[in-house]
Amino acid sequence: MEISLVFSAGIDPVSCNNFASMLTKMANQGVERLTIGINCNGGNVQSGIFLYNILMSMPFDVVTHNIGNVDSIANAIFLAGRTRYSTRSATFMFHGVAFDLNGPNRLDEKRLKELLDNVSADHQRISTLIADRTGLSIDECRTLFMEQKTRAADWALEKGLIEDIREFTLPAGGGSVIFTG
User: Fold this and answer.
1) Radius of gyration of the chain (CA)
2) For residue 153, what are the CA distances in angstroms to 67, 92, 106, 165?
3) How far apart (Å, rounded) are the C-alpha atoms in residues 164 and 132?
4) pLDDT per position as a tens digit, 34-57
5) What pairing do the DSSP bridges indicate for beta strands 33-40 and 2-7?
6) Which pairing describes strands 176-179 and 150-152: parallel, antiparallel, or unpaired?
7) pLDDT tens digit string along 3-28?
8) Contact (CB, 8 A) for 45 and 16
9) Rounded CA gap, 153 and 110, in Å?
10) With respect to CATH, is domain 2-179 assigned 3.40.50.2000?
11) Using CA atoms, how far apart are residues 13 and 18, in angstroms rounded to an integer?
């Protein structure tokens, strides 16, 4: 059985747990191939790494296809595809890890060092993941994070993020799902 799915959701614990549950059901139903059209502006790093690992663990073939924007941590999720494509008009955006401060916060030296250590650790694990799945080096990944640039499909093809530039089509006659969180 083959299923096509459009993933258009932010990356947060709720959406990722819901998607992981859906993936587990697909595995239990004997799905052989899942094609995921992705349009995602990213979100929570920990949730994105979790979803990447869940996708990598699936017993079926996972194909990912950038059908709009794959931004931030969504790049990690996209790279879980064993086969990866992009439409010509789609883009990939990379930037460094950041965190939001809520309410009044006291930032002493110890807390600042802890926060910096967390950001550095996330940069390292995301860089390693990207380097393992593409033609980019860890240093090139770190540079991407510092530049905060949006890249086109031609760049993604050149750097090994995708295998080909092609249009995304849903199969006629069913077998399609839209996931929005």
Assistant:
1) 17
2) 10, 8, 43, 7
3) 19
4) 999 999 999 999 999 999 999 999
5) parallel
6) unpaired
7) 999 999 999 999 999 999 999 999 99
8) no
9) 42
10) no
11) 9
